[in-house]
Amino acid sequence: MTLEIIVFIGSILFGILLYWRESTGNGMYRLFNKMMYSKKLQMSPNDPTGFMYQQKFILRLVFIAMIFLVAILIVRFLIPIDIATISVFASSIVGTLLGTYIGGFILKSEKVIDAHSDSLEEKFDHAIEQSKDFVKDITSREPKVVEEAKKEIEEEPQPPKKSARERLKDKGLM
User: Fold this and answer.
1) Three-state secondary structure along 13-59?
2) What global pTM score does this model have?
3) Rounded CA gap, 93 and 60, in Å?
4) How far is CA 24 from CA 10, 18, 54, 142, in A?
5) pLDDT per residue over 92-116, tens digit each?
6) Are the C-beta atoms of 23 and 107 separated by less than 8 Å?
């Protein structure tokens, strides 16, 4: 079980490395594309697609499985010890596939952060200013109920009104 975990973690890192490498250049994929397809069907010169980079899930899975099948065959012939079992093979494929998606997430987030770095700084500064105002309000302001009560107290009291009896007396009716 320990060997499988080590292989899984290593294959995640290998997947990230593969994805990053193909995002910078896809020379091997172009070579295979030129060998397999006619001139009309070959990919355009500015197409960044690679074995892992900008591929669908099924094609990534097929390419990764082929890489590890060839690697296991080479290991079987070079090393007579049986270390290339099915569980190691499966964990390496799943780990590499997971690593390519992690690599894609890292590259996309890096591009988004670079594109919005100025606006992120402004938003961060704005958030800091708002938090300072919020903390200042919390520490210095009294509750709203107390403020409303003070406003009512500060208003000038109205002079007491005469009762109905006193008004009738003033008119001489009583």
Assistant:
1) HHHHHHHHHHHHCCHHHHHHHHHHCCCCCCCCCCCCCCCCCCCCHHH
2) 0.58
3) 10
4) 21, 10, 12, 59
5) 999 999 999 998 898 888 888 777 7
6) yes
